[in-house]
Amino acid sequence: PVVATHPIQFLGEEDFEAHEARVCVAEGETLANPKRTKRFLPSQYFKTQAQMRELFKDIPSAVQNTVEIARRCSLTLVLGKPQLPNFPTPLLDDGTPMPMEQYFRELSHEGLVGRLKHLFPNEAEREKERPRYVERLDFELNTIIKMGFPGYFLIVSDFIRWAKANGCPVGPGRGSGAGSLVAYALLITDLDPLKYNLLFERFLNPERVSMPDFDIDFCQGNRDRVIDYVKDKYGRPAVSQIATFGTMAAKAALRDIGRVLGMGYGHVDSIAKLIPAPPGKTVTLAKLPPNFDPDKAKVIYARHEAPELEEREAADEEVAELLKLAARVEGMVRNIGMHAGGVLIAPGKITDFCPQYQQPGSTSAVSQFDKDDVEAIGLVKFDFLGLATLTILELAKDFIVARYPERKDFDWANVPLDDRKVFKLFGDGYSESVFQFESPGMQRLLKDAKPSRFEDLIALVSLYRPGPMDLIPSFVARKHGKETIEYPHPLLGQVLEETYGVFVYQEQVMQAAQVLGGYSLGGADMLRRAMGKKKAEEMAMHREIFRKGAAEKSIDQAKADEVFDLMEKFAGYGFNKSHAAAYALLSYHTAWLKAHYTAEFYAANMTIEMDDTDKLKVLLNDAKIFGIEFQSPCVNKGVYRFEPITNRLVNYGLGAVKGTGRGAIEAIITARESGGPFLSFYDFCLRVDRKAVNKRAVEALIKAGAFDSINPERAKLLASVGRGYTHADTQEANADQGGLFDFGDSHAASHVEPDLVDAAVWSIKERLSLEKTAIGFYLSGHLFDQSGAEVRRIVKRQVADLQDSRDPVLVAGIVSD
């Protein structure tokens, strides 16, 4: 039957101009261009029923048929209920699948047995500790089963177990999930939550049913392998990554519309610079609403913060049009991307639940719904995140095992967390490239705080952020006995002892509510959430609950209010202890690596940072502090990556030479491995695959000094690159003749190498300057070498160590062309 339809492109009739502007933004066009393709009409807005009837008044049945189509649609969406794939469980003796809850319990208890053996090697101690672990495990199991989430835990545990068994490093935990003993028993996390007093209720609240959410860190190079495993297990049509929608923010919208309107860049830029950009705040170009109150506004109104905008709008029609149109497109989708780690696993085809979108140039599809919408329709998001630190640790482990065969069973889980050498490294502030502790500010904090136990690292990870930073001086002073440790109430000693009487973690706010206010930990988590939202009515209700609970412990109302106010203040910026503890473990492991396997530490880090010249320079300078030296790039000894040779010597990675590339370096290594070391520059040109190793790559390697072991005359080598390739091509052409006219020793004579092109020897400045173009910095020497000692007597600090200040500072540098 004939059905009345309308190709809708925008909501209202007044939106046509904004829609056209958005199309021009996407296509790089201008509105005034008479030659641009105009595919849309002003009439393509969402019409009312009356308008549709008027349009199809000659065939009213066409409008009625739209209702008939709706009646025939039988799709039923299950909203608000998580849709998980069926997790296959082992078969029982009778051939039926084991009930999921039973398998979940058995696997968790079995996992706990293994964890306890590792935690407490002494059997007597293990049996003493077992009851409290079993009690906590059973509580968590009962809560998870009651909420209906065993399948979620089993799915996550399964792909993490596969990753660990197949050489894909997994992080020790991330977010509040590290507070779950079940997660620890199922190998999802790798930190004992009881030892570090991490709360399960912060992750999964028994009094508030909500979907658990594990964020999983994987080694960057292996993350996709784990996703492929999931696709193979549940079926590729059931697995999809998630779309993200980048929208036009106020300033970007204004710049885009300025270009679409054909306005000059400088003119638009002067207006854009008037728009405020407060960190963490949303700014809008919309006109001020009636009875505007800036204190109650949820967004920043640019016109209120920058009155000059309205002045220029009133004085210039072009500016008025710019602001009007920019405000209309503000918030519209500008581009589609892919969620950094979100992966959907559906109980069937993804397309039975949501549409998909094929990104241009990509072989995989993403959901057309973003992460919030997929949650609304019941699909469950699993986070597969890539973390470079895990790649660094795994690469360093490979180096360790290669150099020390007796350490073939090396496992990060066996690294002791009380190593004095590690804490000295932290206390001295030598934490460059140590996860979470690499910034100059954190290095200064380490020197002041001098952490002496793992718990101190957890606290410092949590404190070094906007907000709690104000607590750092008191934390440090109390740790070192320079300030008296005081507790808001004596009962809070058990809660705050670890952090010297300072509220640092969200979990401490929850425990304070439990100890003083009589809350359950589930109820305390709801209090924590309420404090974060700052809703007056909700807070008033909780204050009364807290007062009553405190009164039962003989705490008067004034003291109860004092503590409640303190908790409310800290709840706003208290940190998630479970997340901090898991990340502190990664921090400790990287510091342990730096302290005990220093060459491996730098080789791994510099390999990962190979494309970042600035970072390589920082690492090189930091390595010198630890007595690490670098063997210059060399075509006869080097490989693509950085590699440790001895405890104090690292082979510089050829891949870090600019203008080369992995293909070129691998071709060089292949030629060297098949025919032995290169004997001369012409031997090199003849033996390498010259399609893979082009002249530009050879020139870069010469400048970097990679041929010095063959011939240190870099100027002559650089001038001879063309001759070298011509000679190699000639030799190959002669060889291809098959020796038809080869009599006696004439063939040997054809292999005589020509002389190198004569060229003036480079000065030290020329050699180092060209080396810098190839490597990114001076490696074999420095222009300061001849005058450095004298300069350092006058200039005491490096530019990198300077802090923001209005005071004049004396610096030294080099004036270059």
Secondary structure layout plus pairing:
Layout: H1 16-27, H2 49-55, H3 60-72, H4 100-119, H5 123-147, H6 150-165, H7 181-185, E1 215-219, H8 223-234, E2 239-247, H9 250-260, H10 265-272, E3 283-284, E4 300-301, H11 302-305, H12 308-315, H13 317-329, E5 333-345, E6 356-358, E7 365-367, H14 371-376, E8 381-387, H15 388-403, H16 420-427, H17 440-449, H18 454-463, H19 472-479, H20 493-496, H21 506-517, H22 521-533, H23 536-551, H24 557-571, H25 577-596, H26 598-608, H27 613-625, E9 629-631, E10 643-646, E11 649-651, H28 662-675, H29 681-687, H30 695-703, H31 714-719, H32 721-736, H33 746-749, H34 764-775, H35 788-794
Parallel strand pairs: 1-8, 2-7, 3-4, 9-11
Antiparallel strand pairs: 2-5, 5-8, 6-7, 10-11
Helix pairs in contact: 1-9, 1-13, 4-5, 6-8, 9-10, 9-13, 12-13, 15-25, 15-26, 16-25, 18-25, 21-22, 21-24, 22-24, 23-24, 25-26, 26-27, 29-32, 30-34
